[in-house]
């Protein structure tokens, strides 16, 4: 039996049009994610009167809910058996839930209470997880080829990066049409999410087959045993640690970017523009690093990308308030390096799932992708919990006049924090043993074992 049995279209390159259709579901998810993190909290505070404390606690509990729902849905989708496959039923069911909650979140009534926001976010995160986690697992299954999986991840990253650019441009345009109209800005972003969801769902669900594995485990493990399997897979723990570090670095930079440009550089009018520049060039990062990964291998490329990030962030130490050109250049470089390690690490997760299935006889692809997603979310929360208190402890106050020492502290955290985290990410994934040769051998052994299982049926 060939590798064709283990993944769809694995014997040749996946059609580009089908890959674009498959990845399109990343567009509405990304257009929802940015407003949720950047715009929604201040709008709900300033326009709808919720306290920052209440909003912060609600979002904290939302992340705790993610910690439960992500691995749960990942494990359940691995165990799903239906005529439509394992992943498609979850994505199709999550779509209406996500759309309903997005409507309530982005088009709220005038009288909004903390209970309303908490309930809506609970449903919103549930719908999001029902789409995202099975989709990520499916992305690792439509091909079994080492480099083809990187192509799948690249198309998904480009769809998300394009969505982020549009999500950043839209509020800027609306500000020109109706300045300071928070309700219009929120509604515009919500309309973009909802309008893109239905066509993206249809394109994604029709793109590739979602067949059941050719071989089922003789015994279905319990949910507790399934979840504990994460701790028993050392290669997965290395990938999770590396991705946590790289996402921590990116999130520290994101949390402090506006403060750095507005206060250290003294150029608040440039903050949004430079943020947008970084994401515009980030659209080209995926294809660029995909080519590098195909030439040198996934973990080698992840290390190279992280070392480039270290150099870029250390170069920020050379930026002075009158060195705008240098900051623009570093922002462009940051965009071109953006997501390089995330892309490779996401592709590696599917390879690790293959190894685990060979070792244990159980397919845990959905579970492994769910904890990979959870590691990124945890890193985002940790970055805010580390960066903001640290710069405050160093004397920085976004609402007052800051001393030179306070601004120097802001620079050090903005530059050194991400540099150290990127270096840690590179160290964790350096020398990763699951390369293209080893993965090819794993796929060969899986094909032979599955052929025996089919012949015995």
Low-confidence stretches: 1-11, 214-218
Described by the principal axes of the CA atoms, the overall outline is globular
CATH superfamily of the largest domain: MFS general substrate transporter like domains
Provide the gyration radius in Å.
22 Å
Question: Count of DSSP E strands?
Answer: 0
Number of helices: 17
Give the termini separation: 15 Å
Structural class: mainly alpha
Sequence-ordered SSE layout with sheet pairings:
Elements: H1 16-23, H2 26-46, H3 52-79, H4 88-106, H5 114-139, H6 146-177, H7 182-207, H8 223-228, H9 234-264, H10 271-282, H11 285-296, H12 298-315, H13 324-337, H14 340-360, H15 365-393, H16 404-429, H17 436-456
Helix pairs in contact: 1-6, 1-7, 2-6, 2-7, 3-5, 3-15, 4-5, 4-7, 5-15, 6-7, 6-10, 6-11, 6-14, 9-14, 9-15, 9-16, 10-13, 11-12, 12-13, 12-14, 12-16, 14-15, 14-17
Give a description of the structure.
- The structure is a single chain.
- This protein is an all-alpha fold and 457 residues long.
- The protein folds into two domains: 16-210, Growth Hormone, Chain: A; 232-457, Growth Hormone, Chain: A, CATH 1.20.1250.
- It is built from 17 helices and no strands.
- The chain has helices at 16-23, 26-46, 52-79, 88-106, 114-139, 146-177, 182-207, 223-228, 234-264, 271-282, 285-296, 298-315, 324-337, 340-360, 365-393, 404-429, 436-456.
- Helix 1 (16-23) packs across helix 7, helix 6 packs antiparallel against helix 11 (285-296) and helix 14 (340-360) runs parallel beside helix 17.
- It is globular, with a radius of gyration of 22 Å.
- The two termini are 15 Å apart.
- The model is unreliable at 1-11 and 214-218 (pLDDT under 50).
């Amino acid at each position: 039996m060939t590798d064709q049995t283990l993944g769809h279209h694995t014997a040749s390159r996946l059609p580009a049009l089908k890959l674009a259709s498959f990845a399109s579901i990343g567009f509405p998810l990304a257009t929802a994610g940015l407003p949720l993190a950047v715009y929604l909290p201040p709008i709900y505070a300033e326009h709808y009167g919720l306290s920052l404390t209440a909003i912060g606690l609600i979002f904290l509990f939302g992340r705790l809910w993610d910690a439960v729902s992500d691995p749960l849905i990942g494990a359940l989708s691995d165990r799903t058996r239906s005529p439509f496959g394992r992943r498609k039923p979850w994505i199709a069911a999550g779509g209406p839930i996500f759309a309903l909650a997005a409507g309530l979140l982005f088009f709220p009534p005038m009288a909004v209470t903390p209970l309303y926001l908490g309930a809506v976010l609970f449903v919103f995160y549930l719908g999001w997880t029902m789409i995202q986690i099975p989709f990520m697992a499916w992305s690792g299954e439509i091909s079994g080829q080492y480099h083809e999986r990187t192509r799948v991840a690249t198309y998904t990253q480009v769809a998300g990066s394009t969505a982020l650019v549009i999500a950043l441009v839209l509020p800027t345009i609306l500000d020109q049409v109706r300045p300071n109209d928070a309700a219009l800005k929120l509604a515009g972003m919500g309309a973009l999410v909802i309008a893109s969801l239905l066509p993206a769902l249809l394109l994604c669900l029709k793109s590739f087959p979602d067949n059941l594995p050719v071989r089922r485990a003789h015994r279905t493990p319990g949910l507790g045993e399934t979840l504990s399997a994460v701790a028993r897979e050392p290669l997965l723990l290395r990938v999770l640690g590396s991705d946590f570090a790289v996402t921590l670095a990116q999130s520290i930079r994101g949390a402090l970017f506006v403060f750095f440009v507005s206060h250290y550089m003294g150029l608040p009018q440039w903050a949004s523009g430079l943020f947008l520049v970084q994401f515009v060039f980030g659209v080209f990062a995926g294809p660029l690093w995909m080519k590098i990964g195909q030439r040198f291998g996934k973990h080698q490329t992840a290390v190279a990308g992280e070392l480039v990030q270290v150099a870029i962030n250390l170069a920020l130490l050379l930026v002075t308030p009158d060195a705008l050109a240098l900051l623009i250049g570093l922002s462009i470089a940051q965009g071109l390096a953006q997501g390089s390690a995330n892309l490779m690490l996401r592709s590696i997760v599917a390879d690790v799932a293959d190894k685990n299935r060979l070792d244990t006889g159980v397919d845990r692809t959905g579970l492994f992708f769910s904890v990979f997603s959870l590691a990124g979310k945890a890193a985002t929360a940790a970055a805010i919990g580390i960066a903001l208190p640290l710069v405050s402890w160093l004397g920085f106050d976004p609402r007052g006049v800051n001393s030179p020492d306070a601004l120097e502290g802001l620079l050090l955290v903005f530059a050194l924090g991400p540099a150290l985290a990127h270096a840690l990410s590179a160290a964790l994934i350096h020398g990763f043993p699951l390369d293209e040769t080893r993965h090819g051998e794993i796929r060969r052994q899986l094909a032979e074992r599955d052929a025996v299982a089919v012949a015995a049926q």
